[in-house]
Each structure stands twice: as C-alpha cells, then as structure tokens.
Amino acid sequence: MLLWATCLHASGYSVVAATTTKLADQLHANCRITAATTLSAAASAVAESMEQDKPLLLVSNHHAVPGKLSGILPEWIDTLSEQFPDTFFLVEADGSAGRSIKGYQPYEPVIPSRTAVLVPVIGLDALGQPINAEQVHRSELFCQISGSMADQPISSVAVANALFHADGYLHNSPPKTVVLPLLNKVETHRQYRQCRELAALILTANHPQISGVLAGSVQQNCFVMFS
Fold it and tell me: Nearest Cα to 101, choosing from 149, 137, 128, 155?
C-alpha cells in the first residue's frame, strides 16, 4: 500500500494512505503520518496533504497498541472520498499477523462501502506449506473456509476455495466493487508456474466482480496481469 501511495504521489496525484485495522509502526520515511481523532481533523489533514511533498498516512492513534498504528473508521474513508473525489485513497483493510494467508473472523475484512477496487493479497510462498499456526493466521478458520485439514499442505485449490467462500477473502466486499486479486511474492520460476495455476482457477470461477488477476512481487514492484 505505502509503495503504491509513494508511486502515485510521485506521478503527481493526490493520494492518502490509511488503514481500517492496524498497521505496523515501522519507519515510514516516504509518508507523512498524521493521527486524527475526529473526522473533521482527518478532513483537514487530507486538505493539507495536497500541498505536501510526501503522501499522507492517516491513522487514529500512534501508540494505542505497542508497535502498531491504529486505523480509522471505514465510514471516515467513505466520507473523505466523497469530499475529495480527486484524491486516491489506498486503504489497508485487512491484516494477517505477518503470514501470507489467513482465515477470517466475521468482522473481517473491514472494507469501506465506497471502495472502487478491492485487492485481496495472497502470498504465493504459502503454497505447499503446512496449515498450522506458524504458516497461516487463524489456521483453524482457514481450514473451515478452504475445506482443508490441519497440517495438510496448502494447495491452489484450497486458496481459491478460501477466496470465494462466503466467509473468506471477499466477505464484506461491496457488491459493485471491482475485485483484483494480487498473487504476491512470486520470486522464482516455480512460483510463477504456481501463480499461473492459481490465476486460472480464480478466473475460471467466473466471479462477476473479478475480470483479472495481478501476480508479481510488491518488493520488486513488478507485476503481470492474467485475464
């Protein structure tokens, strides 16, 4: 998210990054972090960001949880995006505790209702790994939505099942939102073959909101599109 915010800002666009959950409190040298405790304060920060040399990272509290930046309400994003229609709002609406794949609680993901494009991120390095707490965030819930067993290797079919399950990755997705799954961490020829297989499974499902699948590496900022 922050990489894309920086790229958009460098291209001359007005851009605001935010989270509706929590974000790791790391050094975000390429962003200007602002904590807003009210919607009006958030709106003022967005207005001021248009004149800044760095994109805005909007949060609600710097240290509500040790090591984490607390997110803002999704309703704030809806209001701000309507108030500032020429600004890109990039929102992290989900977290996986550092794992590449996860199972979902009923309240997740926390997606603003005005979301235009939803990008579910799946780490390809999870494929072939056992379904356990070390590899999968909320592994027991992932088993339920993917039709898998604990300690079973994660397959492309299991990931596709988790993506399309009513309680999975697309849970809470607004019905008119364009969904563009991102298969991340494609670093080797083997992983590229795996991402082609998974992309084919996703596209052949003919989900009405999905017309393409991104694949590549966020770290390398290099992607291809399957459609």
Answer: 137
52, amino acid identity: Q
* Type of residue at 140: E
pLDDT in tens, 35-72: 999 999 999 999 998 778 888 999 997 666 777 888 99
In the structure encoding, which two tokens stand for residue 157, read together?
């079919």
Average pLDDT over residues 96-119: 93
Amino acid letter, 91? V
The number of residues making up the chain comes to 227
Q: CA-CA distance, 46 to 50, in Å (whole number)?
A: 7
Judging by beta carbons within 10 Å of its beta carbon (0-12, 13-18, 19+), is residue 79 exposed, middle or buried?
middle
Q: Is residue 71 within 8 Å of residue 45, measured between CB atoms?
A: no
Stretch (H or E) spanning 40: helix 39-49
Give the model's pLDDT for residue 28: 66
